[in-house]
Amino acid sequence: MLALMNWKSALPKAETLPAKLLSVPYNVHLHIVILMLLSCICFSRTLGSYFIADDFPEIAYVSSIFKGHPELFFSNFTGNYMQVPGMKVYRPGMFLTMVLDFLCYGGKAWGYFLSNFLYFTGDIVVLYFLCRALTANWGRMNSALFALFSAALFTVNPLHCETISWMVGRGDPASALFYLLSLLLFVHNLVKPRLITMLCSAAAFSLALSIKEMPVGLPVVTTVTAFFWKDAPSLRARALNALRFTLPFWSILVLYFLLRYLCLGTLGGGYVGGIGAQQIVAMLEHWTDRDTVERLLLPVTGEVARQSVFCLPVLRALISFVFSLVCLRLLSGCWSWRWIFFIFSLLLTTAAPIFQLWGLGPNLEGGRFYFFLSLPLSMMLPLLLFHPGRTRATTASITAKKTIDENLDRSAINPGRYGPALTTLCIVTQITLVVLLARITSRTNMLWVHAGREDFHLSQECQKLAAQTDKRKRILLLGIPDDYHGAHLILNRTMFELMLRPPFVAEDIGSRFVTTMPLMYGPEQYINGSRLKELLAQPDVIGPYVWLRDKQKFQRIELPVDQATETKTLTVPNSQSGNDSSIYISSDHHAGGRYSVLLDNLNLNPLAIDCLEFELDATKSTSEPVKIYWNGSVSIPAVSAGEFAAEQSVNKANGAKIVRVRLGRYWRWYALGRIRCLEIIPPAAETCRIRNIRLLPYASIAPTLTLQSADHYLTASSTGKLDLCLSKGSVPGTAAMELEVGKNNYFFDNFQGSNEHEPVACKIPLSSDATTFSLDKTGNCLSNPGYYQLRLRCLDKSRAPIGEYSDAVTVLR
């Protein structure tokens, strides 16, 4: 704070009217106003948003502290953050920010987003003054342009939408505020060493670490800064100065890791369990992904690009032009070794902590992880464009007792050999870039605002539905929104239930609703089909009701009462092979575009059919997956015909690949009532033959696994035995069964495809006639507290797996 209070002392004072007029372009007050306006343009509408995703469990956790569980408050200082399964992080500072907000705002979303916005604006202001402090020997205009455009580019970065408009994303801007403040105070301490300044800087660093782990690289940055910015007669003296000035930071870092180890039992941390395992497996692929680098430079979501088709091309052309100006500036000698090392240290230390999280989705999913990295990225272009060159003043240390040449001070920039035209061009391009990015960021942020508002409408509609329904009945819901163009909504069943409990609503109605969503995380389209059918068979359950996104309301779906199951072999119309159950498609049939097999007039009960199976024989086919549509002619908003990649089996019959699609795993399969038509779209191929199309019930492809408890999906029993109910069903060729128990906090739905066996902790062989089984909860498979998933599969005489896995059940140990 001392650095912010004394910023005027570093700036020459204008004494005459002409001098005052000349000072307008680098007037600090004007710059702060401009930056605040940019921040408001981009993010002010966040205040009208609502909670999303992890906001609900974290605020509910804080709420429970004031409802008779004070021990939860102290556990955040001695253990894992909010005891979140699947994570090992130490963030007591972030927890305190949420407690303070809860005391001020309760369950009112606008207050939490206001705090996020204030943390972010604090980052902008401190970054501006840090840039001014580091460039005190550049001249007022050079320093002002660098600081203004660095802070402006940081302000209008679209990657920050996830951080500002998601309440739990506050960890990065709150931590960055103290990180930047610590670095600013450190720079001022280099200029004028004072014990109080150093203590404040060290305290700010400690606060930053308590909020989030990202500032761990600050000691490296301060060491580089002290080495290059502190005046000294020799390299040895510079090294000793750097060690002397940064010793408190290194000491704090050692103490932090020691405390972290005592509380978490590890020096690392982050995501663990299934989520962490997935990230480790995909880490190399993500770090070599060129799309992530392109999205960092051109942060435009797919939805924003569709809304404004010229947005991305214009931004790409503008960035290319700016880089050409950078090349001209470099040729004129406007660069500095000290700044190269400084920026490199920032890039390295802000990228290293996210080594496990690297990767940006097409809609900038995961943008919050790059909040710290955006600091040096925002400084790079202004640095290269407005560095005054290798003048006597700029090559001297900022701590050296030298005055800036008055001519350089009054010039906009040292133009070098290319003249003042280049100066003007640099300024104009930077202004254009800031304006364009502000427009992109505003539109991107509105996606997150819309996501929050959809959650609000979802909560309101649930309350209306509960008020209109008999309190003795439970309401079955389908289609709970998971995502809105990259912005999170409701990711799992726990979040949905908490949204319908205090402090978010006046009356607890969370238990009035039942869903088939995953307990933790899984693909949005998947549900537990077995649980859906069990729920519909219970007399106290009504529904299902399907969420209509465009109307922001629920619609009741009438499903057939009968659930009679049978295997159906479908007749293919217009067969060319002479066999009415097969169709032959040559290249002539798809020369004009899409080709498919359409099966209509079906009138199927989706509760009785779980799987579509057929043989596919294609020559010279592409790698595209088989696509399935159903009821494609029916127009129901948000739940019209679905298109999904088929799960293709490696088994082959008669030279043809057997394609099996678990239709019952998709909530949209049930959302249209009776199924009147199916359409199969094979991959493009020279020739393609589809035959033996069959619709199969669940029992013919997979065994059944349930728990002997009131809730056949989750149990929290602390008894020593876990009682299971088994059924092999009617899977052909079954000679035995095998029970698979997942690893602690691993979830089978997160591991689809080639790594589906990664989450398996142990396998237990069972007889094909087994109907019950008691699993010892104290055994090796369930030894640690946490979530476990179990699934069952049939085996043939050679102990090879046949059919499909049962729907998984989840156990809380």
Intertermini distance? 48 Å
Helix run count: 25
Largest sheet: 6 strands, antiparallel
Q: Which range does the strand content fall in? A: 15-25%
Task: Summarize model confidence as the mean pLDDT.
Answer: 81
Helix percent band:
40-55%
Note poorly predicted spans. Answer: 1-5, 7-15, 17-21, 400-418, 574-582, 584-594, 633-651
**C-alpha Rg (nearest Å):** 31 Å
User: What best-fitting shape do the alpha-carbon axes yield?
Assistant: globular
Count of extended strands? 27
- Please state the structural category: alpha+beta
Your description of this structure?
The chain is α+β, with helices and mostly antiparallel strands. The protein is built from 25 helices and 27 strands. The strands form 7 sheets. Strands 9, 10, 12, 15, 16 and 18 form a 6-stranded antiparallel β-sheet that branches. The longest helix has 48 residues, at 420-467.
Short summary:
With 813 residues, this protein is an alpha+beta fold. The protein has 25 helices and 27 strands.
What is the secondary structure topology, with strand pairs?
Blueprint (H helix, E strand, L loop, with lengths): L1 H4 L11 H6 L5 H16 L11 H11 L5 H8 L8 E2 L3 H14 L3 H26 L5 H16 L5 H4 L6 H21 L3 H17 L6 H12 L5 H30 L5 E2 L1 H9 L1 H5 L2 H8 L4 H6 L3 H21 L5 H15 L22 H13 L5 H4 L10 H5 L9 H48 L6 E5 L4 E2 L2 E2 L4 H7 L13 E3 L13 H9 L3 E8 L4 E4 L11 E2 L12 E5 L10 E3 L11 E9 L7 E4 L13 E2 L2 E6 L2 E6 L16 E4 L5 E10 L7 E4 L6 E2 L5 E7 L8 E7 L17 E8 L4 E5 L10 E9 L5 E2 L6 E4 L1
Parallel strand pairs: 3-6, 3-7, 20-27
Antiparallel strand pairs: 1-2, 4-5, 7-8, 9-18, 10-18, 11-17, 12-16, 12-18, 13-14, 13-17, 15-16, 19-21, 21-24, 22-23, 22-25, 25-26, 25-27
Helix pairs in contact: 3-7, 3-8, 3-23, 4-6, 4-24, 6-7, 6-11, 7-8, 7-10, 8-20, 8-23, 10-11, 10-12, 11-13, 12-13, 12-19, 18-23, 19-20
